[in-house]
Every structure is written in C-alpha cells, then in structure tokens.
User: Fold this.
Amino acid sequence: MSEEKKALNFIEHIVEEDLSKGFPKKQLRFRFPPEPNGYLHIGHASSICLNFGLGLRYDSPVNLRFDDTNPAKEEKEYVDAIKRDVEWLGYVWENECYASDYFQQLYDWAIKLIRNGKAYVDSQTSEEMATQKGTPTEPGVNSPFRERSVEENLRLFQEMKDGKFPEGSHVLRAKIDMASANMLMRDPIMYRVLHRPHHRTNTDWCIYPMYDWTHGESDYIEQVSHSLCTLEFAPHRELYDWFLDQVIEDNKIRPKQREFARRNLSHTVVSKRKLLQLVENNVVSGWDDPRMPTISGLRRRGYTAESIRNFADTIGIAKRENLVDVSLLEFHVREHLNKIAPRVMAVLDPVKVVITNYSEENTEWLKAENNPEDESAGYREVPFSRELYIEQDDFKEEANRKFFRLKLGGEVRLKNGYIIKAESCTKDSEGKVTEIQCTYDPKSKSGSGTEESLRKVKGTLHWVSVPHAIKAEVRLYDRLFTDEAPDAHKDKEFMEFVNPDSLQIITAYVEPSLKDAQIEEHFQFQRLGYFNVDSDSTPEKLVFNRTVPLRDTWARIQEKS
Ligand code: ATP
Ligand code: MG
Assistant:
C-alpha cells in the first residue's frame, strides 16, 4: 500500500497537528534508535516501519542511531547485524549516527549543568542512594553531597573522567527535586564510572552517560522533530524535557517525545535480553536460528521483507499493549509467498509406488506450471518414470468415501501427470506399507487434450520420480514456546515453556529442478507448504527450512483441544 492511501495512525495525527500549527514540513526528522546489545526482533520491525514509514510519508530524513552508551553489553557484531536487518527490510537511513559520537558534547553540557548548579557529584553507594529515593507516595531525602560547591563538583567530575576513581565510587546526578511526584525526577544519575572499553571509543572514556541524559540530547543534536519510543518511556518524558531545557538554544528544533505501545507476538519472547538467554543456553543455534523471532531468524526461516512490512502495517501501532497472534504473521508470509514462490514437488515422508504397466526404460519429462498465480513464471519439466515416491499419508489400504487420496482399488491423479489406480501393496513385518503397486491410464496425461486427460478424479497427489529425486535435509519447525505468552507468568520463568519439539530434521526427496536452488530461494512444496533454502545448504547437500505449512494447522489443533 502506498503511504498516502493508508489511514493515519495516532502518531501521524500528532505530526499532522504540528504541521497544521505551522511546523515546517521540511524540518520533520525521525530516527530509529536501537541499542546494539542484541539482534533486532519482530517488535523492532514495528518501530522501524513506523519511523521509516513517517520518513516516506513526509519525504523526511530518518536516522539510524545506535544508542551505544553501555559498553558492558554492546558489540560491533550487533551494530552490523542491525544495519543488515534494517537494510534488508527495505529502508534507507539518512545518517548512521552513534550516541558515542556525542560523548564530548554531552560531557561539555554536563559541565554547563554543574556550573549552573543543576548537577552534582554524589559519592554515596548505590544502596545508600536507593534508600533515599523514597516511594511514589513519600518524598525522597536529599543526598549529603547535594550542596557541594560548583568548584568541587567540577574537580570531582574531571577526576571521574580522568580515571581516578573505581566503578561505583561517584556518579554525576542532575539536581532536580527529591520530592517530585515522578520518581525519575528525583535527582537522576547522568554519569557513572565504567572502566570498560567501548566498541567505538575504545578507552577514551571511563565515564558513560545514562540513557535519559543521552537520548533526548542526541535527538536534539540531530534535530529530530519527533522522537518516538515505547510506552515504558512515558514517565521519562518529563525528564527528557527537563534535560532539553538545560541546553536548548533559540532557533533550534525542540524534539518531542511521544510514546506508542510495544508489540508482543504470541508463543515467543520479544526482548533482546531474553533472546540472548536462548542463544547463550544453546536452546537455539544462534540469533538467526529460524525459530527465533529476530529479523535475521525470520529471514533465514523464509520470511520475506515484504511480508514482515505488511504484518507491521496491518497491526499498526497502538496506545495499549496487547499480544498479536503469530498466525497473523504466518498469514502474511503465506500471502506473499503464494504470489512469488515457484511450485515444486517434494515428498517428505516417502513410500514407493511402482507403476506395473509403465516401461522400465522409459522416462517422460512432463510439463509443469511454475506458478499458477504468475503466468510469467513459466514452465519447467519434471521426470516421470515407473517408480515414484508419494507421501505415506496419501495412501491407505482401506478408507471411507471422504478419503480423496489413494486407496486400494481407487484412483488419483498424479500432479502434472497421469491417473493411477492402486492394485495391491507390500508391507513389512510391522504392517507398514513399503510399496504400492499401481497401474496407470496412458491416455490420462495432464494437458494432453484427450478426453481421459480431462477426466476428473477426486484426489491429486504430489510425487517425485525415484531415480531422479534428490535427497535433501528438511527442517520442520514448530513454536519455540508451548505457551502463548511465556514471559507473562508471575510464578514461572519463560525458559520453562521452551517447546522441546520445536525442530524436527528429516530426509526428503525433491524433484531434480531444485538441484541448483540457491540459499534464501523460496518454493512452495505443493500440498505441503512454503520452504526455502537454508544458509547451511551446499550443492552436495541441500537443506530446506519449512517457512510455514500451507494451512494454519496450529489454529485447528487449538480449536479442537
Ligand atoms: P529489548 O527489550 O528487546 O532490548 P528495547 O526497547 O530495549 O527492546 P531498543 O534497541 O532500545 O530495544 O529499541 C529500539 C527501538 O525499538 C525503541 O524505540 C524501542 O522502543 C522500539 N521497540 C523495541 N521493542 C519493541 C516492540 N516489541 N514493539 C515496538 N517497538 C519496540
Ligand atoms: Mg533496551
């Protein structure tokens, strides 16, 4: 959908209102501000689509800003992954910015606050400070260091910066109001000592600015007009504004913080901290494990950027948190892949069919349509021979009238091929069918134009020719968590809900046209679902992921139980 045609969301209404009050459109500027402490997840996609969507709607610049103020948790690997993911989602940022680029400016402003009597060095322990914080209904207590002289504060802050003090010995605090009804306004910490190298500034700094002090000032430096964040920051808005008041100059844009609700997806967790636990405990193979709700995991699983954007657009943004069912995400990927994924045949759980009246020497190359939804996708040829694989599930010795697949004495059409009839079958000692003997109707070939080719039989099965089939590894995925909201339980840890059966690896047979399938290529395995080529795949050993089955079996299982 083009940006103009969509209904306005409430954030866009705020922007429209500002424009109608005379805010110049060309001064609109947005940013997406991830902290590089993990990979982006599907929740971030909402924020990315919101901010970059605004950029597209108003033809305004959008910065990608790394909020990199905590060297203990941040890494270059994450910066690179975030850039890759935003780019892959199809967005172009104006500037690549880093809060760490503003460390000097932030430091200079901190000095200004000290000089103006708006900040002081507190030399208490964090426990002492915590006891003085008060409660929402009781005011806090002033620190004994609150009335230090400007000179002493300047000297101590300088020494903090010069590395003279160990971690935890001193902090710089804003001097606001220990009795404020907003606990965040009770002299919040602006700087702490951290003797940690930073992935960009290395050992240049051993004091690091806190989020609240950094975020608004970074917005101001970049002249961001609308700074959009999730609801948990609503109480921070007062502080955001207070910090801006300390530095704002005439004729500059004053950034405006507005909040929207976090998006949560069912049967998973969307928090980098929790996703990191899954990685570190080897519950998954990495951040891009196809079961992960990360952008890179979804991509590897076979999700398209378009399907993720459409999903984010459909759920839109909200003022209140809620849980979005993962089947909605699956709906969007099915819808997109239905349009673009070539159809191929693959058998996941094979049983052999022998067509007894078909010559042993013969192979026919049958014409098969690549995508009925897209004529330009053209045709390919699939080999047909005397021995074929079909799915175990598609055969029963005996079955009632509602079973439209193959049964003894019954007929089905083989997709793109002939009508066959099951005559007999062979079983092993456990009663499992190992081979089905069939006959075929030579005149019934699909597309041959004969009366028999038009003959309707109830079922059509997919199949592959035994001598031509390629063995491939197929990875079938299920929900990573058995619970709808694994991290919403007061008495249980989300890790307790990890689904032990979220990955099943099988060997399948695929048609030979897939021989040169490339990593990330999408296919519809007919009657089964959408699959893509995993990054572990090699020309010697193809590996496919099941992106999503054709139908939402999960929803049906849920209904039954
Ligand atoms: P996490 O808890 O996963 O680390 P975060 O909010 O700390 O999330 P940031 O890197 O700070 O992660 O997020 C960058 C931007 O994305 C922020 O503006 C944040 O509000 C937004 N965001 C993060 N998670 C979600 C979510 N689930 N839904 C919508 N927006 C989100
Ligand atoms: Mg965070």
Remarks:
- The pocket of adenosine-5'-triphosphate (ligand 1) is lined by residues 33-35, 43-44, 46-47, 67, 229-230, 262-263, 270-273 (CB under 6 Å).
- Residues 346-462 form a domain with the Ribosomal Protein L25; Chain P fold (CATH 2.40.240.10).
- DSSP finds 13 helices and 29 strands in the chain.
